[in-house]
Design brief:
Pfam family, one: SPOR
Largest sheet: 4 strands, antiparallel
CATH architecture of the domain at 110-179: 2-Layer Sandwich
Organism: Pseudidiomarina aquimaris
Strand order of the largest sheet: 2-3-1-4
Helix content: 25-40%
GO molecular function: peptidoglycan binding
CATH topology of the domain at 110-179: Alpha-Beta Plaits
Shape: flat
Order of helices and strands: HHEHEEHE
Number of helices: 4
CATH class of the domain at 110-179: Alpha Beta
Keywords: Cell cycle, Cell division, Membrane, Transmembrane, Transmembrane helix
Radius of gyration: 45 Å
Structural class: alpha+beta
Protein name: Cell division protein FtsN
Strand content: 5-15%
Number of strands: 4
Length: about 180
């Protein structure tokens, strides 16, 4: 059967189709389900009382005391639990772990360029914004003095350059790039 091209069944009007009839719909209460629900609730309550300790109105059971004339059975006391001693704790306390970490090879120094401008005044503005973050930058003229680059560094590691770049990003200075340059 093709469900996509199937027609919808005709919709009924809320009034039942007759114009003059405004009769309230009858509601049949399923009494069997209501009685079953009440029986289940009662069974649950009785079961919970049974689990909790039975009937609270019942008399307590009477215990009979053993007359002193009968000999009491002798019970030996339970020996104390021996204290466990772990050997590995004592062995590991005095051991030292030696790790061979190879030295990292330092590559060329890293420079971070944060801007390149045609006007020196724009480069000076960016240099001042960087200085407000506690970092020192330099302005280098390039291309015969037609461009002015704002550069930070040199940094020995890329990690140090990344730390300063994140500081500048938090201050709203974006677009800084880290390069392997030598000046």
């Amino acid at each position: 059967m093709d469900y996509a091209n199937r027609k919808r069944p005709p919709q009924r009007k809320p009034g039942g189709g007759k114009k003059g009839s405004k009769k309230a719909p009858e509601r049949n209460v399923p009494w069997g389900i209501v009685v079953l629900a009440i029986v289940l609730v009662l069974a649950l309550v009785i079961g919970l009382r049974f689990i909790a300790g039975g009937n609270p109105n019942a008399p307590e059971p009477v215990t009979q005391e053993v007359p002193p004339s009968q000999p009491q059975p002798t019970v030996e006391p339970i020996p104390e639990k021996p204290e466990e001693r772990w050997q590995y704790i004592e062995e590991l306390e005095n051991l030292e772990v030696e790790v061979d970490v190879p030295e990292r090879e330092l590559g060329p120094p890293k420079l971070m360029q944060c801007g390149s401008f045609r006007k020196r005044a724009d480069a000076e503005r960016l240099k001042a914004a960087i200085a407000m973050q506690g970092l020192e930058s330099e302005i280098y003229p390039s291309n015969g003095g037609t461009w002015y680059r704002v550069v930070l560094g040199p940094y020995e590691t890329k990690r140090a350059a990344e730390a300063d770049r994140h500081t500048l990003q938090r201050a709203g200075i974006h677009g800084c790039q880290i390069w392997n340059w030598n000046l």
